[in-house]
Design a protein that fits this description.
This is IDD protein. This protein is mainly β and about 260 residues long. It folds into 2 domains: about 40-90 and about 100-190, Mannose-Binding Protein A, Chain A (Roll); about 190-255, no CATH class. Helix content is about 10%, strand content about 35%. Strands 3, 4, 5, 6, 7, 8, 9, 10 and 11 form a 9-stranded mixed beta sheet that branches. The chain has a 3-stranded antiparallel beta sheet with strand order 14-15-16, with no helix packed on it. It has a two-stranded antiparallel sheet with strand order 1-2. A hairpin with an 8-residue loop joins strand 14 and strand 15. The protein starts with 7 loop residues before the first strand and ends with a strand. The model is unreliable at about 1-15, about 20-30 and about 95-100 (pLDDT under 50).
Length: about 260
């Protein structure tokens, strides 16, 4: 982070004259905390961002919404990732769910029926191609809106409202009619986010979120790398001034 230091230091030069040095914007180690756009939750274990969308959509519309933000309906690679999801305080509206204490959202699995004899038999599949290695849910609870003609059902993760239940890892998996409307959980790779909350594409220069608007970095795999800092001279003829927090070398003079 840039640090402003306007103290003058004096030393004796040749012939006894006084030489003045101004130290401005001393470079400091930089920490980057924002790797997701506003409204998304970051998980370091998978270098991914997650967001629950409240606008109730059927499964297929939810898939398209996630794709529009360069993501997909969430699948999980390990139990720790699922526990991270359960531990988050998602901003969920009651009207989007059946019960206040039990809230569900679409995730990226489908249950395929293979036998409809005495009991429904089938197996889980990842709903979209190209996903990384994931774990598959246990046997589901079948939803109330099931159709006897359908052989493919879509996954809803039941999220409990009460933190004590969630922190113990309590949750359920439902196989539901894919045309029911529900909230849904999107997942995308972590990304570079600039100081003005814009998403930055791979390989581009940007100024990361933080306290130094004079930092320029290259976006690489969602991380700022090869950062260079610009140093600004203090504004001439102004004793008191304020730096702009989002524009490099832009000052507002506070003198009368």
């Amino acid at each position: 982070h840039g640090k402003e230091n306007v103290d003058s230091r004096h030393s004796r030069g040749r012939g006894g004259e006084t030489t003045r040095f101004h130290t401005v914007n001393v470079a400091q180690p930089v920490r980057f905390s924002r790797k997701c756009p506003t409204g998304w939750h970051h998980y370091e274990g998978t270098a991914s961002c997650y967001r629950v969308y409240l606008n109730g959509e059927n499964y297929w519309d939810a898939v398209q919404t996630c794709q529009r933000v360069n993501g997909s309906l969430a699948t999980f690679t390990a139990d720790q990732e699922l526990r991270f999801i359960l531990a988050q305080e998602w901003d969920l509206e009651e009207k989007a769910f059946v019960r206040k204490d039990q809230r569900r959202f679409w995730v990226g699995y489908q249950y395929v029926i293979t036998n409809r004899n005495d009991s429904l038999e089938g197996h889980w599949e990842v709903a979209y191609r190209g996903s990384s290695e994931v774990f598959l849910p246990p046997d589901p609870i079948f939803g109330t809106a099931m159709s006897e003609k359908e052989n493919v059902f879509c996954a809803q993760l039941q999220y409990f409202y009460f933190p004590t239940l969630r922190h113990h890892g309590l949750h359920s998996w439902f196989a539901e009619n894919c045309y029911e409307k529900s909230s849904f959980l999107c997942k995308r790779s972590q990304t570079c986010v600039d100081i003005k909350d814009n998403i930055v594409d791979e390989g581009y220069y940007f100024t990361p979120k933080g306290n130094d608007p004079c930092l320029s970095c290259t976006c690489h795999n969602g991380e700022p790398e090869m950062c260079v800092a610009a140093l600004c001279e203090r504004p001439q003829g102004c004793q008191q001034y304020r730096k702009d927090p989002k524009e490099c070398c832009k000052f507002t003079c506070l003198d009368p």
